[in-house]
């Protein structure tokens, strides 16, 4: 799909958009890093600090797990689904041939970023702005999604491949116990990252004509 060719006032805009275009989902990852752990932490830290939130509520909570701590997440997921297999809720053949290999592929990566939302922290602002009380939870989720995206794009810019997973709420309780996290933190997503060993699949697009409308544009 082509893009409009323009000259932006700030060259960083071109860089930002090129990073968005190049972001992909990578599943085959190995436990290597092209940058230091401090650099990874800086990406996550700046994303948490600077992604906007409605009324500056700052509801996103993030846990960065590297190396052996990262592998614990996927051991938890494997154990949780094994329990479902034992209970007859998941076919054993499906688990052994599809689910477990996929989880082991996540486990083989370098790190996982856990993204949470602290909905309990919204109690006071919901009371203060009661007219909008039912909007704050969705607003918090939107802010969290922006944090996920920024971390993903920044990690890929530094040479990682990544994929975003959602094994919550299946793993939530054990995640909280393992790392002593507050029960008010509600897990939303898990970003797995490492050095990619394969190329991503081809991007496909629904035509923009049905997705974007522009009015009042100067000729």
UniProtKB/TrEMBL annotation:
Gene3D superfamilies hit by this protein: NADH Oxidase
Superkingdom of origin: Eukaryota
Keyword Nucleotidyltransferase attached: no
Gene Ontology molecular function: oxidoreductase activity
Main location: cytoplasm
Keywords: Cytoplasm, Nucleus, Oxidoreductase
GO cellular component: cytoplasm; nucleus
Domain Nitroreductase: 21-194
Localization terms from the record: Cytoplasm; Nucleus
GO biological process: cellular response to oxidative stress
Family named by the database record: Belongs to the nitroreductase family.
Protein name, entry field: Nitroreductase domain-containing protein
